[in-house]
Specification:
The protein has an eight-stranded mixed sheet with strand order 1-2-5-6-7-9-14-15. It is an alpha/beta fold. It has 14 helices and 15 strands. 37% of the residues are buried. Helix 3 runs parallel beside helix 5 and helix 7 packs parallel to helix 9. The protein has a single domain, classed as TIM Barrel, CATH 3.20.20.
Length: 389
């Protein structure tokens, strides 16, 4: 039996869509030497991409953005988030020389969105680290010089579009690339190095703070705000037993709080430093840098909430010959018979076996102990927006 459910959205509800430069633009007008990390991975290891399909063509948004934005207007979107491809925005990363062709394209996209009453939301890095900086400096895990180059790039972007764009983000899901590459070693270039993983985490947190410091010093729109977009995994323990509760707490510390705490509270958990010291994975840092992080927190946080994560205390001892991994403290737990029951307007509209088990109370609980910030939850079956207290 088919049933139609009507819902009326609040007047200020943000109904939007999000993607990234590398997932949509394609390589039209891309110049030699402008490969991003994703482009390089695609070229080096194309077989892992479904049917070889990847960033070379993507959805051809570079050539079809006007048509696509018309579709956004037709379906009533109020906001659209995308990224600027750092690797393509510049032709010289050291001296921040702008690629005028690509910069003009970004300007046209922003203007087209505004003309169609769709608010642009711009992210500075959605995995588009220039491949040259990975090769020359080790990317975010090598020299702090990459952090400084990112700030130079951000300054050029703010100068170009700061009069038109209200919503800014430094990173989308900053934990992802290094977790796949250096922690789990399942993505090119397949190097397992937990300290490098931790250094990437830290440098992205530092880069966020330094860009926010720059942002506050520039003559941008009076209502402009800046934040970051994270993908925390709401972590459930297998049971109420203390050992399972501890396993969930440790997972949350290493994968969620490592970005949430510095972004919102301006500091890293004390226990994280103790654990990093214990396992010899402490990121290189200075007190001056920690002060920059403390003094430059985000205006808001975007939350990409995909699915919950379930863990339990380890049943099998850790191999002492293996490099440290946070899984030293937990094992993944697959709950038997898990189901999803989506409730809309008080009615159950879908029920099936799924990993989608989104609970609004848990979504809010993940931010417990953090200062009040505006939070958007996206990429899930429902959206949550909370205002500043």
């Amino acid at each position: 039996m088919n049933e139609t459910i009507e819902m009326k959205l609040p007047k200020d509800f943000m109904l939007g869509a999000a993607l990234s430069a590398w997932q949509s633009e394609g390589w039209t007008d891309k110049k030699e030497g402008q490969d991003s990390f994703l482009d390089k991975w695609y070229k080096e290891f194309k077989t892992v991409w479904h049917n070889g399909y990847g960033p070379a063509v993507a959805t051809d948004f570079y050539n079809r953005y006007q048509e696509d934005i018309q579709h956004m207007k037709e379906i009533g979107l109020t906001h659209f988030r995308t990224s600027i491809n750092w690797a393509r925005f510049l032709t010289d990363y050291e001296n921040a020389v702008v690629d005028e062709t690509y910069a003009a394209y970004i300007g046209h996209v922003i203007d087209e969105l505004i003309a169609n009453d769709v608010e642009p939301m711009i992210c500075l890095e959605h995995y588009e680290l220039p491949a040259a900086l990975l090769e020359q400096h080790g990317g975010w895990g090598g020299s702090r010089h990459v952090v400084d180059l990112f700030v130079k790039y951000a300054e050029k972007v703010f100068e170009r579009y700061g009069d038109r764009v209200k919503h800014w983000f430094t990173f989308n899901e900053p934990v992802v690339v290094q977790t796949r590459v250096y922690l789990d070693a399942i993505r090119w270039p397949f190097e397992q190095n937990t300290k490098t993983w931790m250094q990437w985490n830290y440098h992205k947190g530092l880069a966020t703070a330094k860009v926010i410091e720059l942002f506050k010093s520039m003559p941008l729109r009076e209502d402009a705000k800046i934040g970051t977009i994270l993908n925390p995994e709401v972590t459930y323990p297998r049971s109420s037993a203390s050992h399972d509760q501890e396993a969930a707490r440790m997972y949350d510390l290493f994968f969620n709080r490592i970005f949430l705490d510095p972004a919102i509270k301006g500091e890293y958990p004390k226990e994280l430093f103790e654990l990093m010291d214990k396992h010899d994975i402490t990121f290189d840092h200075t007190e001056e840098e920690l002060a920059i992080i403390r003094e430059n927190t985000v205006d808001y946080v975007g939350i990409n909430l995909y699915f919950p994560n379930r863990v339990k205390a380890r049943d099998i001892a850790w191999n002492p010959e293996a490099p440290f991994h946070p899984a030293y403290y937990y094992e993944k737990f697959d709950m038997p018979g898990k189901k999803m029951n989506l409730i809309v307007a008080g009615k159950s509209i879908r029920k099936s076996c799924s990993i989608w088990q989104c609970a609004s109370k848990k979504s809010t609980a993940i931010l417990n102990g953090l200062s009040p910030k505006m939070v958007w939850v996206s990429k899930m079956k429902h959206a949550l927006k909370t205002k500043k207290a």
